[in-house]
Amino acid sequence: MRIVVRRGLSIRLAGEPEQSIDHHANVAKVGSRGQDLGPVRAEVLVEAGALVAAGAPLFRDRTRPDIVFVSPVSGTVERIEIGPRRRLSEIIIATDGSANIAKFDSSSIRTRDGMRALLLAAGQWPALRSRPFERIADPDVTPSAIFITAIDTAPHAPDPLPIIEARRDDFRRGVEAMTQLVGGPVYLCQPDVAPLVQETGRLKTVRFAGLHPAGLVGTHIARLHRPSESEPVWHIGYQDVIAIGHLLETGTIDPFRIVAIAGPGMRRPRLVRVPLGADLHALTRPDLAPGPKAIVSGSVLSGTEGRFLARYHLQATVIERKPRPSRHWLIEALDKAQMPAPFIPTQALENALGTDAPVVPLLRALSIGDAEAAQRFGCFHLAEDDLALARYVTGGQTDFGKHLRAVLDSFEERA
Amino acid sequence: MKAMRTLYGPIIDNNPVTLQILGICSALAVTTSLATATIMSVALTAVLLAGSVVISLIRRHIPNSIRLIVQITIIASLVIVTDQIIQAYVFEMSQRLSIFVGLIVTNCLVLGRAEAFAMHNPPGSSALDALGNGLGYSLILLIVGFLRELFGAGTLYGHTVFVTVHDGGWFVPLHLMLLAPSAFFILGLLIWIIRAVRPAQVELAEFEIATEKEGAAR
Amino acid sequence: MGGVWHRETISWLIAAAAFPAACAAIGTFGPVALWHMLLALGVAIVWQLIFLWARAQPVSPIALVTAISIGVLAPGDFSPWQIILAVSFGAVIGEQIFGGWGRNIINAAVASLAFLYFAFPQTLVAGGGHLLALSVIPGALLLVATGIVSWQIVVSAILGVALASFALGQDPTIIAAQGSMVFGLVFLVCDPVTSSATRPGRWVYGLLAGGLLALFGWTDTGFDGPQAVVFATLVASLFAPLVDAAAISVASRFRRSRNG
Fold this sequence. Notes:
heterotrimer, A: Ubiquitin-like (UB roll), 6-stranded mixed β-sheet, C: mainly alpha, transmembrane helix (chain C), transport (chain C), transmembrane (chain C)
């Protein structure tokens, strides 16, 4: 199946990365962020100073204790940062280069329960996220479909095809594992080239052509299989699928990801092979162009500024940090006290959402927190990523992602 | 005491026109001049007063299943009497008011007070409530009529206040004031002013504009 | 940091697109158009500042566009207090009480002009000729190219004018030579905030606006003055939310039947 996404926008940004992979990036510290777990409280399982192996559990979901986050590298727990309201901010691990890796029993994976148990134990379950609400998938629920995102149209994202080509067997194994987890269809969403895997009864390959947001999973879900509260869908990225394939073959986790470090602030934008949660500040410091910079984990559209690579991000962008101009105190006060300015419908905004939902009424409903209207227009297949382009188009004036999150939270509370 | 509150409550705090938004159509139609507005106010207050007292007197004897029909019959009869009195004593006014005196029967204000208050209260309080509501309605009608006649024709009760350019003066009458939309605007501005002075009357907003902070707080 | 479609950028672009028409209007009608524009601009800005102080609503350069529209479409013999009253009405009731530009239902200039035409019907308002019509074209092209004005409304409005004119047995090309009609089509009917927000809704809205323009012009107000386009925009923008709601419910019913 081939789907052409006609609505989309091209984003011009300097600092396109070269597509050759640098395998010698040395990462001294990694950080696992508590907020990757979502709004749930994390229960920390290690202490500062403890020695951890790669694959050892670091923290888990307090309400669902079988979902654990494991350490990507072997080393010592350097610091456990606690943030506001005593929530886990991040656990920072200093690598020691030893090959201390945990081994998992990958024998009983023929059954769905066995596969699930292995993924949970090895800390690979957080790779699966569920929509609506964009949370880590609930192991006790069977989704109606799984989406594998093997296409990335975000500005300066790494090209998935050579990465998948280099580890074809692991990828195939991981895709097969996904078909075992669900009874319904598995959609492999890929770029507009020859199919990456053989289609079987339930496994379908869908080729997407078009500009961003053609590569976002929200667009795929809207076109192929819309979720509802009672029938969620799960989605997972291609590099996590490769890691799962590696786990099934060797019984050890593969913490490395191919990440693009790019943007106008980098002198040599390139791809690097780093473990999850790599220290971005240390990685980029030798190559930064002069001037104040902001180092963003993720794409320039939907990324967040931070020191460590977030769990689901496959790129980091370095952009100029604009100095705040000093203004008269009265103008500053008036500015701060103002109500948020409304957005103006333009054709660019119409093309910023990949779905065929009515764009302007949906964004207006989100802006006032009208949950019923937003549901009627269709917001359940969306997450903050999908609205990042709309936010970018309005010059960052209105953060639709935050409004969407508030609306989705109100639905979650009711459920 | 309670009686006085029944009387002056409906004038501002519980005004039937500006708070409950009842009886608007006659407020738009007859306020092109102060004279017609005054006659209409007096007529409605009289009908309201007499109707409420009568209905209150027989309230225990009206069968529940036909109470609305009985109320309308009483009010209609009173309206016919009022209409005849106006035709007899102020015939030109009656011509200008045309059907609107007869439409007092359909004015939701009259039936509303009968149903809500007169059916459940003794004649004394019903009379005070009717008088209060009538006064509240009259106040709004007189204000709107005052503004419309003054700025639409430059006169008050027919006496020239601003000399129009037509008669060699300086005042350019605002033709819009003689059209119905102006009454809507004046009523709207009046409601705005009253709610600015009495914020308790403002209804709760169904949705608020989402600010950045709300998204972050959980 | 981000894309360019900030609310302020859009309002400056619309003002820039209206600038040639403003010059053409001053050329056609004389300095009276300029005085009206400046007065309207002053009044609009004063009201924006009052609401900034009273309700924390952000100000916007859209006051420029409102002022230019007043100057182009009301060049008649109005006295200053009449312009002040009308623009106050339009700015406050048409725009500010809803929360400023971007949250309004009807265009502030449309509200002001409708007030002017209804309140002072004896003042004659001229329509503007070929020069005004031609001066709108570059601005219109700029707005369509940048996507601020959606071309669907332009096309469907022209279509609506043509269809309604033929239905009435009249020649629609006369309307195209009328400067104020062309200006109203681009800057009033196609206003991005007050026109329909859904894609199919835009076609219906454009047809409605164009049809009403032709209907009002041929049967009631004539095309000597701009009344037809102002009233047509007023009615059409009041119907725009209804058209949107209908389009959405039709689309969702279609989608539900397709998804099973």
